[in-house]
Amino acid sequence: MLAGIQNIITNPTIYNATQSTVSQVTTETCLKAIGRPGFILMDKQIDPQTKRFSAIKEFLYQLICLGIYLSIIIPICRKSAYNIAQKMFKDEPIFKAFPTTKELSKYYKMNDSEKALKIAELNKTITTGDKFTKENLNANLGKGAIEAGAMFGSVTGLAILAPIISHPLIHPIMNTLTPKKKTQKTS
User: 65-102: buried (b, 16+ CB within 10 Å) or exposed (e) per residue?
Assistant: First the structure.
C-alpha cells in the first residue's frame, strides 16, 4: 500500500499539476463547487426552499467564476506577464527562442531528448550570434513569468473580476433552471 501511495505522489504528472497555479486554483474551486452546496443541503436548520436556492446559487457562482478564470483571466494574465518579462529580460535566450507562452509551455513539458532536438532545430534558424544550449535557455525564468501572471490573475481575477461578472449571470440562469411555481389566485 505504501508503495502505491509513493507511486502516486512521485508521479511526474501529479508533481507538475501541484506546481501549477491554475491546477491548484481549479482543484480548489471544483471542491468548493461541490462542498459548499453539499454543506448547505445538509444543514437541518434551514428550510428546504432556502437550502435549495442557496446551494444552486453557490454551485453556479463557483462554476461561473471558474469559467471566467480559465477562459479570460488566466490567458490574459499569463500572456501579459510573459510579454513584460520579455521586455525586462530582452537579452535572455529563453525569450528569443520562445516568443510565446504556448511555445515555451510545450518546451517546458518535453523530456530531455525532445528538448535536445528542439534546441538543435532552433539553432538551425540562427544565422548570427550565440547558439542556444540547454544551459543558456533558462526555462525556469520563462515559466516563472507565466506562473507569476497566473498567480496575479488568481488573486485579482477571482477576488475582483469574476464576482463582478458572475453576479448578474446567476439569477437569470437560476430562473431558467428552476422555474417558479404558479400561484393560484384567490378571490
Answer: bbebbeeebbeebbeebbbebbeeeeebbbbbbbeebe
* pLDDT tens, position by position, 95-149: 988 999 999 988 888 888 998 899 899 888 877 777 888 888 887 888 889 999 9
Indicate the residue type of 100.
T
CB count within 10 Å of CB 141 equals 15
Helix (H, G, I), strand (E, B) or coil at 13: helix
Whole-structure pTM value = 0.75
Please name the residue that has the C-alpha cell 544565422.
Answer: 127
**Cell for 73?**
483571466
Residue located via cell numbers 533558462: 138
Interhelix angle 21-42/48-68, nearest 10 degrees: 170
129 Rama sector, left if φ>0, alpha if ψ -120 to 50, beta otherwise: left
The answer to whether the CB of 34 falls within 8 A of the CB of 28 is no
What is d(CA 119, CA 68) in angstroms, rounded to the nearest whole number? 36
